[in-house]
Amino acid sequence: MSKKTPNAFILYRREKQSQLRKKYPRMPQRKLSGLVSKMWKRELPCIRGRYESISLMLSITNNNRNAAARQSVGPTDFENGSTHFFVFENRINNKDSLPIEEREQPLSTSDDDEFINSIFNFDL
After folding, report:
1. For residue 96, is it within any domain?
2. One cellular component GO annotation, for this chain's record (predicted)?
3. Distance in angstroms (rounded) separating the CA atoms of residues 8 and 73
4. Which of 83, 88, 109, 110 is 20 to 30 A away from residue 55, measured at CA?
């Protein structure tokens, strides 16, 4: 199963912490975390909402991956000790079973940071 989806604050913290670490390389981690927390509390709702949206998209993507993993079964061949895994497709009300060109948006298999950066430009 996939790792837990990062919440909005964790996504914000990743971005801001790396920026602050470059600016203040000698700042202790504890102070850096406290500063990021205060920054988050003071952010405008539209900025916080942006991270909430990213978190929600990642959660949906992660849930789809987990659903596919739950459909796997195995091991099936006990006689010779080998393990086989099969994934059964659920084609009822499942957009993921459509060919890629017919999907609204394909699921990302890249890591979270690459996926987020492919959708949003954080360098604004």
Report:
1. yes
2. nucleus
3. 34
4. 88
pTM exceeding 0.70: no
Parent domain of 112:
8-119
Structurally, the chain folds into a number of domains equal to: 1
Q: How far apart are CA 48 and CA 9, in angstroms?
A: 8
- Return the closest-CA partner of residue 48 out of 59, 61, 63, 37: 37
The predicted-structure confidence for 45-79, as pLDDT tens digits, reads as follows 999 999 999 988 888 877 666 565 555 544 444 45
In a domain, 124, yes or no: no
DSSP string, 58-112: HHHHHHHHHHHHHTEE-----SSS----EE----TT-GGGS-GGGSSSPPP-S-H
